[in-house]
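User: Hi! I'm working on a homework problem where we have to compare a predicted structure to a textbook description. Could you give me the structure for the chain below?
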Amino acid sequence: MSSLLSIGKSGLLAAQVGLSTTGNNITNAGVAGYSRQVAIQSDTATQDQGFGFVGSGTEVTAVRRYYDNFLAVQLRNAESNQASLDAYTKQVSQIDNLLADPTAGLSPALQDFFNGVQDATSNPASAASRQAMLSTADSLASRFQGLSARLSEIASGVNGQITSSVGEINSYAKEIAALNQTIAGLTTDGKAPNDLLDHRDQMLTELNKLVKTTVIPGDNNTLTVEIGTGQPLVVGNTAFQLGTSTSPTDASRVTVGYQTASGAFSPLPDSVLSGGQLGGLLQFRDGTMDRAQNSLGQVAAALAVSFNAQHVLGQDQNGAPGTPFFGPINAYIGVNQNNSPLSTATVSAVVTDASKLTASDYSVDFDGTNFNVTRLSDGQITQINPFPQTVPQTIDGVDYTISGSPVTKDNFLVRPTYNAANDFSVAIQDRTKIALAAPIATSAPTTNAGNGKITAGTVDANYLTPGNALAAPVTLTFDKATGTLSGFPPAQDVTVTVNGVATVYPAGTPTIPYTDGAAISFGGINFNISGTPADLDTFSVGPNTSGVGDSRNGALLAGLQTKNILDNGNATYQTSYAQMVNFVGNKAREAQISGSAADAAVSQATAQRESVSGVNLDEEAANLLRYQQAYQACGKVMQVASQLFDTLINIR
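Assistant: Happy to help. Predicted structure tokens:
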């Protein structure tokens, strides 16, 4: 009877474990990361009764967790990608809305400014038109500064989120390390604490939403967690701490790296911190954010430099030469904090050529012999030659001036357009100093017998070279017998261009062949003479002494709006800005589409995981009834065994 009673008892206990396990599944069905558990039964040793072997009952050998590591990793990776795209989309949408705004964007302010230039050109003597031009210029500067400030706010917000994400990563890393230690201590004979394993897996899931990790199984159910290309985050019960610090070359930029207990900081490349919220933020900052800010600055710098270049070629209302209309554009220079204290090297960079200007940043490094300027967008290297310098060296439209005594490995970060929009300012406040007139005037006396005509004339940058500006009129005389012009300044070369073919006559050439309609230039002065002059007809080229109503330079200033200046003469201000807006818009749209795909991937991976590890309440309800029936049946077995035992006792 004792065997029958023991058999019933073992079944009763097994059913009780099954009921407890099923009940635990039901009550934890809504807990994130919980994996379904099941009691595994096996029969106990059978006994030889002579006529055969008779079973002795059952036992619960394990409570197994239904878990598929492949599906879990697949889900974590999908959620990491989803979190990365979500963080990226939230940030890029802000810039997209900012730049593409039809009223608050840059395009309306640019159009208003050039409308003001055109109005002033149409009415050069009008004080109201000149003042309106200054007002639109101030509005344009405010718009550049406002857009730059908003981009800086977004960048500052990204810095804050990066710091916050690093703090959360450290918290999860510490908790996973602590769970590793606890799980290892409780793991015996292949048995593991299922609930703690689920809790640790959930911590890994949350960690992957912050940064993508690689998980490597270890002894006693411990895990090693790595980030990037194998950088450790958790090894056994040890959690490595990440930290943030300002970039050694840019105080406004946060970098991520290892933080030791002693306070030492070892930066990590942004490229190794991929996936998750942190990866999305870094991808946004290093890609779209930097390009948007630099591209906006590129437009600002190009406008300031090219407009100034034309404005200084004009003459203001007081008859004085034009001065820069906008303030200078100086590049941001970041001196690496790790440079040797013995170094006295300094770097300065000024934007001087709008057509060659790029939206890239540059690294300036001293290798012990030479300074090398590396364009970070494509890695192209230009050497500063000679060094020490005698004059600034122009690289991609930026004049570099390096002085002092460098030390090997000195490093500087140069961002030519990074602060350009913020620094964009109007240098002229007096409307009379707007140089709408040209500094030269041409004329053909009415006493000329022929029908030769001379154009109004323009000047180029060579006119600003000392000695080229006209102090007195130059009179050119036509000699019919030789078909030549004479009277050119003896100290200047004369260039005659016919049908695109230029011929240079050295300074001092007494006579220059005349060709109808040819373009003639000397000392930065350009004009055309056409028609059939008579013998001894003259043409005068001299300083403009009455430029109040002249707007020739104003017309050239207004023409800059539609002139291809940027991108090596392939883009206007507006098209360059439109390209930037289009780039950001495309990135925003790509992120939205990728985000939708990532959501679908997460849903699919979740369904696959749940099909193995998830709790099905209908199935658990059926198991509950099954174990209940088994419990009742085993109880009946024990009752029968008890009755049989009583019968034997009562036999006399």
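For your comparison, note the following. Residues 298-425 form one domain. The radius of gyration is 41 Å. Good luck with the assignment!
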